[in-house]
Amino acid sequence: MDQEFLDRLETAGFDKKMLTALLNELDQTKRSIRSQLSQLSSEPNDSTPVGRERQTRIRKMKDKISFITEEREVVRKRLAEIKANISSANRMQHKYRNGFELAFLVAAEQSLDEKQFLELEAQAHKILSQMT
Which domain of life does this protein belong to (predicted)? Predict the structure, then answer.
């Protein structure tokens, strides 16, 4: 994957708005490339390259579309993870009465070894940060 994309993905983190903006930008770029590809393939003019050069440009455009599709899938999966975590948190919030969270935390601390508890706590912080 493109280093610029990876940097932007890291910057976006789990911010739903930033990820949606990145997804929209990827879609816009993909539409633009498809339009250029269509023009190159079906609307040749005097300045359009021919032969091997034309085929090379077409191949590069198709490759770029493939890369963008892969990048888009990464962003889509991250957005799906955020949505699943929010849905799960909302379901839990309405399912249990007040105080359950504290009781669950105490039970987890008593039942799990320290490493497992710390991993669970880190995951909870991650989910909580996604909800804000």
Answer: Bacteria
What are the Cα distances from residue 101, in Å, to 33, 93, 96, 104, 132? 50, 9, 8, 5, 18
Domain encompassing residue 77: 3-95
- Is the Cβ–Cβ distance between 65 and 30 less than 8 Å? yes
Number of domains observed in the structure of the chain = 2
Write out pLDDT tens, residues 55-78.
899 899 999 999 999 999 999 999
pTM of the model: 0.71
Do residues 109 and 117 lie in contact, with contact meaning Cβ atoms separated by under 8 Å? yes
43 and 64 co-located in one domain: yes
Name the residue with tokens 């710390």: 118
Asked whether residue 43 carries a pLDDT value surpassing 80, the answer given is no
- What pLDDT, on the 0 to 100 scale, is given for residue 89? 76
